[in-house]
């Protein structure tokens, strides 16, 4: 169980408890496309709210990513290791929940290190929010016919999953 603060509306922030589960899956491309597309190892993360107040829908977030985030398994770490998971999760066409999990295996009891790392992570997070806000402003001001996707090699897993889900949705 993980406790986080969530903005419920413009004026309300609530502390909620989430049950977070994840599973690694291996997804193969369709038989006719196996020469062009590799199989993908993906992580499915599912977060569901525990103890939902009456009158509000429960928080349910799902994320499929090509990154693996072992939140407790350090895989034989070196002396110091920091793991950061950026988990942007679309809510609607114009809103996204942006989770960041930051963990380290050193100075875990040192409040000064914790404060410094929190400040640095907050600064990076703010930069990401500013960039995403600017992108959303540009996209919302652009005619739908003028929007096209530019994909990078690092987008391969997400693109393959979206294409697979799209095809499955068509029947």
TrEMBL record:
<dbReference type="Pfam" id="PF19112">
    <property type="entry name" value="VanA_C"/>
</dbReference>
<keyword id="KW-0560">Oxidoreductase</keyword>
<protein>
    <submittedName>
        <fullName>Transposase Tn5</fullName>
    </submittedName>
</protein>
<dbReference type="GO" id="GO:0016491">
    <property type="term" value="F:oxidoreductase activity"/>
</dbReference>
<feature type="domain" description="Vanillate O-demethylase oxygenase-like C-terminal catalytic">
    <location>
        <begin position="59"/>
        <end position="165"/>
    </location>
</feature>
<dbReference type="InterPro" id="IPR047768">
    <property type="entry name" value="Tn5p-like"/>
</dbReference>
<dbReference type="InterPro" id="IPR044043">
    <property type="entry name" value="VanA_C_cat"/>
</dbReference>
């Amino acid at each position: 169980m993980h406790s986080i603060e969530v903005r419920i509306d413009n004026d309300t922030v609530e502390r909620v408890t989430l049950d977070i589960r994840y599973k690694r899956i291996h997804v193969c491309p369709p038989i006719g496309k196996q020469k062009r597309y590799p199989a993908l190892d993906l992580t499915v993360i599912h977060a569901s709210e525990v103890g939902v107040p009456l009158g509000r829908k429960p928080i349910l977030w799902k994320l499929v990513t090509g990154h693996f985030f072992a939140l407790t398994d350090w895989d034989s770490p070196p002396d110091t290791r920091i793991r950061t998971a950026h988990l942007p999760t679309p809510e609607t066409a114009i809103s996204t929940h942006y989770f960041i999990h930051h963990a380290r295996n050193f100075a875990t009891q040192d409040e000064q290190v914790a404060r410094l790392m929190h400040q640095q992570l907050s600064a990076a997070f703010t930069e990401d929010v500013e960039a995403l806000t600017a992108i959303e402003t540009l996209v919302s001001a652009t005619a739908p016919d003028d929007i096209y996707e530019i994909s990078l090699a690092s987008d391969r897993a997400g693109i393959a999953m979206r294409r697979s889900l799209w095809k499955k949705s068509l029947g």
